[in-house]
Amino acid sequence: MKAMVYTQPGEMQLLDRPMPELATGEVVLKIEAVGICGSDMHAWHGHDPRRKPGLVLGHEFVGTIAASAAAGFDAGTRWTGNPLITCGTCEYCVQGRNNLCAHRTMVGMTRPGAYAEYMSIPAASLVAMPQAMPAAAAALTEPAATAWHAINLSMRALVRPLHECRVLVIGGGAIGMLAALLLRHLGVQRLTVTELNPLRRQTLQQAARCEAIDPRETPLDEAAFDYVMDAVGSKITRNQAFAAVKPGGVIMHIGLQDWASEIDMRKLTLAEITLLGTYTYTTADLRATVDALHRGVFGDLSWVEQRPLAAGPQAFVDLDQGRSASAKIVLVP
Length: 333
Description:
Blueprint: E1 2-8, E2 11-16, E3 26-35, H1 38-44, E4 60-68, E5 78-81, E6 84-85, H2 91-94, E7 105-106, E8 118-122, E9 126-128, H3 135-138, H4 141-157, E10 166-170, H5 174-185, E11 190-194, H6 198-207, E12 211-213, E13 225-230, H7 235-244, E14 245-253, H8 265-270, E15 274-277, H9 283-295, E16 305-308, H10 312-320, E17 329-332
Parallel strand pairs: 10-11, 10-13, 11-12, 13-14, 14-15, 16-17
Antiparallel strand pairs: 1-2, 3-4, 3-8, 3-17, 4-5, 5-9, 6-7
Helix pairs in contact: 4-5, 4-9
């Protein structure tokens, strides 16, 4: 089979790879579509020591079962899935918070991912979807569920209902875009998204009907936002989030561009700021997100760009160089 392999920092190659082996309790999926994630870009830059050259990346997938060694999962049926492979027995899994599983592994990190014609995965990680659902929409389940999970966590901490809040999203990549679409659906009227790429700013304005600005040209109002989501996670954006949030406000931190930096602990304390971190999603989030995507909660998704898997190496370059107006490129094997 053909697979796109991360061969060295800044390089992907389309190579021949053996077909996945079918293990007990697993299925082999024929991949229909797979999204390029920001974490895959992070690995491509050589900034993720967990993802080493020689690995097939890709964890935002939809596919048809080509072979099954799991009861109840029949060949020919279509599924998306949870790329986090969890134990099901630790305290977090038992609580329904399997995103925090103490023994989790991951498709496209600890085992070959979906940038390939075929991929194996435990059947327990599959998530049901409407069989007629468009592949590009189903492939957005994973990133959309990340936004879904983060916003649901945030709403528990906000003092006033979300639709009353002035909201700032830092970063107009896939998570920022999907968060903006969901926030608008939830009734947020005063929504600002910061994004450096002018092409993406246009897409945000058209698809999410929000204010999209370049913070280098339009400084953010200080202490003006009830809720701030940092979908980038750099030292610069963390400082922007703390400067922009109002006293008593909430900062939701999703991005992991930089792994460590100073934060304004004095403001956190004296202004009684709530700082939340979030990691991926639960299986319940994934199921709810499939339904939301199918019902059009995230809009018509016309901003999503599709390319063949063979064009994947160039897609990484184009994303790196800011040449794509879309926050999400979906590859089709």
